[in-house]
User: Fold these one by one.
Assistant:
Number 1:
Amino acid sequence: MGLSDRDFIRYSRQILLPECGEAGQVRLEQSRIAIVGCGGLGCSVAQQLAAAGVGHISLFDGDTVELSNLPRQLAYDDRDLGQGKAQVLAAKLAHQYPGGTLSAAGAITAENVDSALAGNELVLDCSDNFATRHRVNASCQRLNLPLISAAISGFEGQLLLVTPGEGPCYQCLYPEDTQSAGNCAAQGVLGPAVAVMASMQALLALQLLLGMDCNTGRLLRFNGLSLSWHDARLEPDPQCTICALRLGTSKTPDSQVIPQGRKNHVDHSV
């Protein structure tokens, strides 16, 4: 189906891009994505993708809105304090962008992760803890879903695209026994720094949905103090229990490939 006259006007600046066009806009309206985490990253990512015309967005978060969230989680205000983040965000975006379908659910758990993510074509991890990140990564590998993981704490951010069957997964970068060395609650963060990483995550998502070439296995690190980026190419880790099944490798220390960036075992969270 084509676009309505109203949608053609609404999305006209995107449609002008040769990488998008009318067919690409229709493709976005037919897309189904899941966003895990509705904090600083998830709020901005969800709003940008809903505004771009992504037709089906599923939001997952078990937390409620707190006063300390408001400086960087801009979708919420004082009236939302104590309410579920995913439910509030879904309601507000549905009102602001009525053309799409938004659903809200609680936290991703070991019991519901596969059923929650199944049926989508892309997952964006905006969560704030290693347990959820590893859970989502493993599920995406099982379900053959591309995963875009972003995080930030202090002035340091990171962005990683994981494509099943191509390159490393999130666990190659951060093994399951990794200990978190910092998060926003302990190290602090500025709202604009969160917005930078969220915008990059949303931009990469739109590129994937539009069928553009996106390099997987690249770890992009952002330094908010120097306003600089570092681009590292990662390799699958033969000791990774997620990738070992796909690669057919055994967990032998002599064959281990140390991914770039793995030496910094920090979970940057929002």
Number 2:
Amino acid sequence: MTRRALLIALGLAAGGALLGLPAQAATKTTQGLIIHDAPRPVPEIDIRDGDGKPAGLDGLKGRAVLLNLWASWCMPCVAELPALDRLKPVAAAKDIEVVALSLDRGGKVTAVNTFARLGIKALDIRTDEARAAAEKLGVSVLPVSLLLDRQGREVARYVGAADWEGAVAARLLEAVAAGRPLTRDMEPPQVRPTTAP
């Protein structure tokens, strides 16, 4: 996907506000929980930690993973981060890893500044320095959360900002961690930010 195509798609996901497109264009994007018929392999992506060292998904095999892709200019993404920050230690106790991957062009500096502004403490800095993750993962809108099983395969994804702290999300994450089939009644409700965080 070219940078222009990604920006257009991201603009549509943000209600077209980014590119001045009509709001009805945003309704063409499928949002919510998408459960795959069969687990999908996840391509290798170059994830870096706060020190610029490799921190890819290979090191997380054996654990279920909620991989959230976000950017600082995406209001729903930023609104979702505090809930993901609170979820991380709760999920870790159940052997589920929460990874928030910044797709910002500013890399570490932008992620650090956003985390500081929001008071994010539990989430680790993870960046896509190569700016290739969105294309490799087939992501055209933000935020998106990929749900990976213990073998590192994508079993589902959630498009949009979800209520990750509710009981429904807990059931979903526990099912992913246990390798149980996912069902539609495990779909967490969408969260729509009303103000900028």
Number 3:
Amino acid sequence: MRLLTFNALFTGDVRVRLRALGEILRASDFDVVCLQEVMYRPHANLLRREFPHSACAGAVVLKGGLVVLSRRPIERWRFVRFPMSGPVRPEFLMRKGALVVEIGELVIVNTHLSANRDDDWSPDNRYTRVERAELDVLARLLADIGPDRPVVVTGDLNLPRDASVLRDFRTAAGLADAMAGDPRPTYRPTPQWPHPPAFDHLLVRGGITAHADLVLQDEVVLPGGRRVFLSDHYGVAADI
């Protein structure tokens, strides 16, 4: 199976970027696509061509902004919301959580954790405490699934690879990082932030072997010749 996770960025030229992304996905060899920040169901519809199966929660506004597209049948899925805790912030409107999708024996957890607006991932930071509570929800989900069933946890975790709270979660849940040791960022560097960390992760357990790499890093050409980046994030693709 070939899987992609990608934060599609819900601001700016959303529809034109999503149409361009949809064309890329239509021509791709991805079996499963996990997306974050697809905020509205009509936006999800722009991406569904060539993917006969999909999962997302919400009639108009999508819960968590999460979408899973699949060329393989989805047997069951559900959305689990994170607790609304910590500092009051616009993210509460996104109703962040996890989209749990079952494709055969494989369980895929597509998620988007709260952002750390202090850029401080030390254990006692106020936003780190929020992220720890959200990871606790994921840990309970994984405990209910059982240790032997193959699982992929993926998405924009808003935590650097070496953050202690993420490391503790991986260890407790028995998850392996498909890009362990890779120093490259998954957030696009800017002059204001030239050395961002890797926020987008692909974690596996249950006997899965995953080989992952960054994708969707380059500009695309829109109708009329304008060039744009698809997102402020890169994609992570994996052969599982």
